[in-house]
Amino acid sequence: MKNFVGIDLGTTNSAICTFNGEETRIWKSPDQKDVTPSAIFIDRRGNKYIGERAYNLAPTSPGNAATLFKRLMGTSTPINLPGTHSLKTPEECSAEVLKVLFGYLPEEMRNDPDIGTVITVPAAFNQMQKDATMQAAQMAGLGNVALMQEPVAAVMSVMRARKTDGTFLIYDIGGGTLDIAIAESIGGHINLLAHGGKAMCGGRDFDRLIFDNIVKSWLLNNFNLPENFTIDPNFASLRALAIWATEKAKIELSSCDDTTIKLSENELRTRDQSGSEIYLEIPIDRETFNQLISEQINESIEPARETLQKTGLSPHDLDRIIFIGGPTNYKPLRDKVAFELGIPISTEVNPMTAVAEGASLFAESIDWSSKSRVRKNARGQLFSRGAISINFNYIARTPESRAKVVAQLGGEAISGTEFQIDSMDTGWTSGRVSLATGATVEVTLNKYGENMFKVFVFDALGSPISIENNQIIITRTAAMVDAIPASHSIGIEALEKLGGRSTLAWLVREGDSLPREGMIVFKAAEALKAGSSSSLKFKLWEGEIEDPITDNRPIGVFEISGSDFEDGVIPAGADLQCEYQVLDSGNIILEVSVECIGGAFHSGRNFYSRLPGQMDFSTATTHVISEGNNTLERINEISQVVDDPKLNQANDKLETAISLDPAESETERVQEAMEKVFEAKKLLAKVRVEHLKEIRQLELDSVNEFFEQNIVQLARPSEKNSFRNLVRTAKGNIARNDRDFETHLEKLKEINFDILWRQDWFVVERFKWMAKSSYLFGDKYKFEELTKLGFLLIQTDEIDKLREIVWQLYQIQINSDSENDMFNVANIIRG
User: Fold this and answer.
1) Vertex 235, ends 259 and 84: CA angle to 5°?
2) Residue 594's pLDDT band (boundaries 50, 70, 90)?
3) What phi and psi, each to the nearest 5 degrees, are found at residue 157?
4) Which helix (H) or strand (E) element contains residue 782?
5) What is the mean pLDDT of residues 729-752?
6) Residues 320 and 398 in one domain
7) What sign for the dihedral angle of Cα 336, 338, 344, 349?
């Protein structure tokens, strides 16, 4: 393979670069731009435009355009194109951009079956978003593809440009996401010490701040527009053009102190409610812009500080801060970030193309013949079993200009034998060296890429000895990444023991070095018969929260269904051997072997689905508001017994969610609000750890109060005794530093649930609540099928069958709030 491809698939702009082993090349768009806008436009005749023309046409007819779809990758949010009467998925839109970028390459390169392509993803991307990116690549027909975290690609580019060693902070802010990385370079070897970031932080958010705080009010003050014109479909074109003009003005502020957000009446072609033609002419200067984005920049500095803290380094230990991404072209942003962090600025790389360039460099380091796209082995060995048994060991890949070749004999040394190494590229020769185990020759690597050498062996008389293999290839790389830390913790939900509480069996923890592989043995908590509709579920969660685990982000389910095998039964207690790989990109590969039926189930064969964790943000406003309010209730309860500033921080983050307008249709706002809810839950988890005794007492009081006020009259005498005895036991465990309290608490909740679950009225009410909460379900088809059947069962008074429907509905729910924890019973056990 002679060409390696790197693609920076961006929120607002994308780029493609190739590396031939020696030089990188950015492939320009037809209009000779280094970057291509990630925009699609389809006109009324069905003609499709992608890139610069689509970006410029999009605001004139927003119903025909798709932009910013990267932010929706890994969700079930549709891209609605009402002007073309069609819906697209974010993956389909990304695939269109990938195909266009790949089309910039020469035909012979595109048609090379061995070409390898690395597509970058933000470190902040969750597992569902990474899976979706791979799906987009498959749709685009790219062939050999691997993913890589954007900070790693940026570091590769930086180290190629910077020839000296040092420790650097990478501040990469694009159109939609922020990535922070801290890397050290020693002799061209790169260690990524830590990384962090923020999912909803980028140039697009700067545009929204200008629009929300300046443009919107200016339009309302100067024209007769409804207060809700930002969501009124009659003013969709006005809104799109105004944001487009806002972005143009923002870019102009990178090179001048002031500008005007300006569009004429002819350009807008929109009238207000009084019939007046609308125009835009809004002056804006850097000082105003700086004030608007100040809070957003401060929020971006916090992840940088947190990432620095993970490494144990101080700003004085870092040599430079390197800026990547379009928004960093704005000098006041660079100056403020550098000042706040106390780290000098470097401008050694092109912030717009560095990630694509670094991705192409990384593509060269991948063994494309491997299924899991592992990195090439850095160590090489030449074996020869001719007249003499001899091995030559060497470093096959190195960023250094020199390398050592060490001889190792398979038997006794023969007196007088010698060897010689010649360069096939330059004619250099080592001269003859006495052959013995440990004999070393240092060779010079005169060029980047492959350096070819030939080995000769001579007997005591100086005559050549024939050896089976005699060629050594040593690749001189621009840089080598030795350590890549995982950006997220990922675990599989499992019971501690039969009837015990759910915990996470970790596949990888945040900061663990990648790639990573291992095996965890689980046991089936219930029997599974061939052909049945039941299944064993390996629920995957992303995050560090141990109580409750449902506060983490659900990222899908690996499922073994009865329909996945033809004969036999997986009995309760059967071993389930789960082998896993976590790739450099953070992607997960799972394979579960079940010896009792002689079966193996692989995540690449549709046994893993991210659908249960996906959310449709175009219809999720009610769900996000509900999640925000539920989390706020927890904060308020904890605030009664704990005084911690993190509770106030969590409360502030929830403001975005609970203040959403139920009619809000802008997916970005809803998605941002959901991210804030996750951030608040992380803060709650920290508070729980630091105030464990007080919060345990609060949790026990809450579940006990619920029993005494709502359940006791429905309970059998034995249940009352069991419950109250368990309360006393749990109370004695509050202060103990173990998990027994949580086990008892789960059992208390289970008793409450079991009593309610046998009440027919409760099952009916639970079903009706779920039936009117369609926003909680990713699989809409399955949801509609189950609810339709459920209502029929209510009419025929078949409540036992309705119970099964309620259980199935829970299984396809996106995630659980605390109200539904009683349903959250894993059906696999830690082995």
Assistant:
1) 110
2) very high
3) -65, -40
4) helix 780-795
5) 90
6) no
7) negative
Q: Does one domain contain both 550 and 412?
A: no
Contact 551, 818 (CB under 8 A): no
Q: Are 137 and 117 in contact (CB under 8 A)?
A: yes
Alpha helices in 312-437 (DSSP H): 331-341, 354-364
8 Å CB contact between 222 and 269: no
Q: Domain check: are 465 and 561 in the same one?
A: no
Is 233 domain-assigned? no
CATH of the domain at 52: 3.30.420.40
Predicted local distance difference test score (pLDDT) of residue 819: 47
670 is a domain residue: no
* Residue 600 belongs to domain with CATH number: 2.60.34.10
* pLDDT for the residue 825: 62
- Could you give the CA distance from residue 608 to residue 589 in angstroms, rounded to a whole number? 9
The secondary structure of 109-157 as a DSSP string is HHT-TT-EEEEEE-TT--HHHHHHHHHHHHHTT--EEEEEEHHHHHHHH
Q: Is residue 229 part of a domain?
A: no
- Is residue 693's pLDDT more than 90? yes
Is residue 688 included in any domain, yes or no? no
Name which of 515, 507, 482, 622 is nearest 558 in CA terms: 507
Q: Which among 443, 476, 509 is the end of a domain?
A: 476
Q: Which residues contact 235 (CB under 8 A, 6 or more apart)?
A: 225, 226, 229, 270
Tokens of 265: 């009446």
What is residue 454's three-state secondary structure? strand
Q: Of 438, 444, 403, 440, which Cα lies nearest the Cα of 422?
A: 444
pLDDT band at 135 (very low <50, low <70, confident <90, very high): very high
Q: Is 42 helix (H, G, I), strand (E, B) or coil?
A: strand
The residue among 429, 445, 476 that closes a domain is 476
Instruction: Name the token pair of 655.
Output: 């403001």
Co-location of 343 and 406 in the same domain: no
DSSP code of residue 377: P
The radius of gyration computed from the CA coordinates of the chain, to the nearest angstrom, equals 30
Q: What is the bridge-based pairing of β-strands 320-324 and 166-173? A: parallel
Tell me, yes or no, whether 89 and 18 share the same domain. yes
Place of tokens 């008793």: 751
What is the C-alpha separation between 493 and 503, in angstroms, rounded? 6
d(CA 441, CA 423): 12
Q: Does one domain contain both 492 and 470?
A: no
Q: Which residues contact 569 (CB under 8 A, 6 or more apart)?
A: 527, 528, 529, 530, 597
Judged on CB neighbours under 10 Å (0-12, 13-18, 19+), 33 is: middle
**320-329 tens-digit pLDDT:** 999 999 999 9
At 415, the pLDDT band (50, 70, 90 cuts) reads confident
- CATH number (domain holding residue 472): 2.60.40.10
Asked if residue 108 and residue 37 are part of one domain, the reply reads: yes
**Neighbouring residues of 664: CB distance < 8 A, sequence distance ≥ 6:** 231, 621, 670
Same domain, 103 and 125: yes
Close Cβ partners of 401 (under 8 Å, ≥ 6 residues apart):
444, 445, 476
Closest by CA to 403, choosing from 392, 390, 415, is 392
Instruction: Decide if pLDDT at 707 tops 90.
Output: yes
pLDDT of residue 606: 54
Q: Look at residue 95 and tell me whether its pLDDT is greater than 70.
A: yes
Find, among 828, 130, 789, 155, the residue nearest to 478 by Cα.
155
Structural domain tally of the chain?
A: 3
Q: Which domain holds residue 25?
A: 4-202+297-364
CA-based nearest residue to 488, from 553, 417, 567: 553
